[in-house]
Amino acid sequence: MVNVTKAFGTGERRFLALGGVNATIRKGEFFTLLGPSGCGKTTLLRLIAGFELPTSGEILLDGQEIGHLPPYRRPVNTVFQNYALFPHMTVAENISFGLEMLNKPKAEIASTVERMLALVKMSELAGRRTDQLSGGQQQRVALARALAPQPKVLLLDEPLSALDLKLRKEMQVELKRIQHETGITFIFVTHDQEEALTMSDRIAVMAKGNILQIGSPSEIYNAPAARFVADFIGDINFIEGQVVVAGEKTAQIRLPGGQVLTARASRPVEGPVTLAIRPEKVGLRHADDDDVPLSGTVTNLVYFGSGTNVHVDVGLGADIVARATAPKVALGDRVGLDLHVTDLSVLAE
């Protein structure tokens, strides 16, 4: 995608849904468009599918511009949020429908349907009508139907959103397995951060019609490029401060209370900045240790099963949260916080 824009309406009612989006999606990868409602991710998916035409810019597939082609002439298929299955047809008939419309030979259709049923583990339900299936089973049928014509790209528009939590997690694993086995490029749309981190090879985080950062789940989580990205992906602590010494890869930041922290920086910075650190990277220590960078009072303990979030007031206006497996602290205790330079980063914006 090269400088892709999409505007709806004209004049005063003109709304820019996408503003100059640029992205290269690699062949055979699981690529996720992640962002809040209204950020433009579904609009971008519809442009790739051909359901909408770009206002400007290019959409290329294997080097060929496809932005002007109708959906049926693109080697792309879509799995919709509501699955859009034919309730009067069986599982096998739903899968074969698209192949029949393409006038494929009957033997090829039968072979493909059998292969798709095995891929999504639905062989035993081939003769059952889709309105007699559970939500997870319907999702598998929709996936098999979309994969049957062997598209170069499969688009998935929040296909797991209607499933309950346990089934959604199971289908996340299944979708990744199917993508790996077929080798087809998947472009997945979701607003669920955990879903994106679990399934994706790379993630594009979107906001207000633009892509803010593209990277692996680890890069997005551990090295966010902007405050929005850091805040949207998982839990994080923000600390405001002023640069006192700027280096090529690190910076020394003075906090409002006078403490100075050293943090990693992707570029030389100056002036007021925001530091970010994940709760699981914040260590708990004795408050009277000589080299403790920050200390404060425990104000809250939030147990969530696999660990506990320890909220500490260090006098900066907002608590810093440390995540620990079995913290030996109580409300009102004085504790020290260990903030390692490699885990504390200066946000680029």
From TrEMBL:
Keywords: ATP-binding, Cell membrane, Membrane, Nucleotide-binding, Translocase, Transport. It catalyses: ATP + H2O + polyamine-[polyamine-binding protein]Side 1 = ADP + phosphate + polyamineSide 2 + [polyamine-binding protein]Side 1. It is an enzyme of class 7 (translocase). Its EC number is 7.6.2.11. The keyword NAD does not apply. GO terms for molecular function: ATP binding. The keyword Cell membrane applies. SUPFAM superfamilies: MOP-like (SSF50331), P-loop containing nucleoside triphosphate hydrolases (SSF52540). Residues 2-233 form the ABC transporter domain. Belongs to the ABC transporter superfamily. Spermidine/putrescine importer (TC 3.A.1.11.1) family. The complex is composed of two ATP-binding proteins (PotA), two transmembrane proteins (PotB and PotC) and a solute-binding protein (PotD). Part of the ABC transporter complex PotABCD involved in spermidine/putrescine import. Responsible for energy coupling to the transport system. This is Spermidine/putrescine import ATP-binding protein PotA. It comes from Albidovulum marisflavi. The gene is potA.
